[in-house]
Amino acid sequence: MNPNLILIIIxxxxxxxxxxxxxxxxxxxxxxxxxxINPRYKNTAWTVFFIIVxxxxxxxxxxxxxxxxxxxxxxxxxxxxEEPSKKVSNELDINTHK
Length: 98
What we know:
Elements: H1 3-20, H2 42-63
């Protein structure tokens, strides 16, 4: 046989053996978790969520009916209670209709 042909066959077989060699893996391979929200938009999403929650609380706070006046508590003593004066002193009175 031709020595060049033998050399080509040996090189071809060596290349096949090298292709079959796999890298040795140490430990387990865990699949890479894909994030729910793209990290690029994560801060924007949290900001929008926070603003929506604030709006919901604002709307709930301003739509609740004010409790009507009920009876006084049993320990309330009206003789010790001063009524608020509805008259504003002249010094503090701002008359806009002069």
